[in-house]
Amino acid sequence: MAIRVLFPSSQPQPQPHLQPSRSSTTTRRSSRQRRGFCCFCSSTSSGGGDEVSSSSSMMTVSITGATGFIGRRLVDKLLSEDHKVCVLTRSTSKNKASSVFPASRYPGVTIADKEGDWERCIRDSTGVVNLAGMPISTRWSPEVKSEILQSRVNVTSKVRSYSTLLVLHLHHMSVVDHINTSSNGNGPSVFVSATAVGYYGTSETDSFDESSPSGNDYLAHVCREWEGRARQVKQEHVRLVLIRIGVVLGKDGGALAKMIPLFMMFAGGPLGTGTQWFSWIHLDDLVDLIYESLRNPAYTGIINGTAPNPVRLSELCDRLGQVVGRPSWLPVPGLAIKALLGEGATVVLDGQKVLPAKATQLGFSYRYPYVRDALKAIAKQL
Ligand SMILES: NC(=O)c1ccc[n+]([C@@H]2O[C@H](COP(=O)([O-])OP(=O)(O)OC[C@H]3O[C@@H](n4cnc5c(N)ncnc54)[C@H](OP(=O)(O)O)[C@@H]3O)[C@@H](O)[C@H]2O)c1
């Protein structure tokens, strides 16, 4: 049985429809009413948009990469607001998914690891979030580079195989394919896909917003392909939000999980020159931004997922040293990082100053606009 919990029939029936969703088309409403997912719930909205400030639909959200650093927090947020979640995991990750989301503590979570189950989950969801992707801060061999790209572009749920005349055909069904085959008024009405600020390339002098052109390095290429694949979703039926994510700061993953132990051993300091830009966002703000993108129709197209005050890496390291009570005194030379990571060193040695023009225009309210406060909040959890 691939799906672990499928909203067991012993569970109370969903709340009756108390207030119509104002964020959906008539077609979408009738589909949700049929599934009985609409209800009135108190809003903890972080963003602008009157349309959702007073009412909200209960959502069922299918998430790829839900077992990762960002996904885990997003699942917690959705469940805390009484929504339902389908974790779309690779079949090789099923055990990991079951231990990250044990049925005892996550009764509202469905884990799907097979093609047909991904398909059913997506069809029965009101929204889909795509967070899957192989980590990029590794040494880049040609194979790794290919996997970095393919793991994002294919967003492969499962390889379907069939044979004709002894020829084995492999057919990849992606999240986008599943959304498209379940659209036409049914299936998800919103698709939120991760991409990254690497889209803009790197610069020590320029700043970038959503209207800036793409860069010409490998990560920019990956982001363009990644976004291009997401754009193949049928946008006449599905609202597409592409979040160009900056460096996500949180205790349990991403860049800080690697940096904090070094600082605690009195061995922390900037990587390379320290003058490179560091466009960061606190994990809670990013999760709020994804959440808002799911429920607020004003959120559409490209949105930079960064805090409004990017810093240079040396400032980040100084502030981090201050909040963990350790000096930031040991700069790691760029050459050493290049020896370790090869071409992948660009991830830490080069940066870009990215400003969240769209989120600001939408009235998104950041809990942590300044890196000092973000780091203080994270240090309190250590
Ligand atoms: N964290 C950041 O600072 C940051 C910054 C910019 C962009 N992003 C992007 O945001 C997304 C989520 O980030 P994250 O930090 O939460 O990532 P993460 O912790 O590395 O988790 C990503 C998830 O993707 C799936 N995955 C891993 N390798 C894969 C592969 N080879 N093929 C297909 N799926 C694979 C895994 O889920 P299953 O094992 O359950 O399938 C994994 O849990 C990623 O695409 C990342 O590139 C993150």
Automatic annotation (TrEMBL):
Which residue ranges are recorded for the region named Disordered? 1-31
Q: The DUF1731 domain covers which part of the protein? A: 332-378
Which residues are in the NAD-dependent epimerase/dehydratase domain? 62-298
**InterPro entries in UniProt:** DUF1731, Epimerase_deHydtase, NAD(P)-bd_dom_sf, SDR39U1
Annotated Low complexity bias: 18-28
Output the CDD domains linked to this UniProt entry: SDR_a8
What domain of life is recorded for the organism? Eukaryota
Q: Which NCBIfam families match?
A: yfcH
The name under which this protein is listed is Epimerase family protein SDR39U1 homolog, chloroplastic
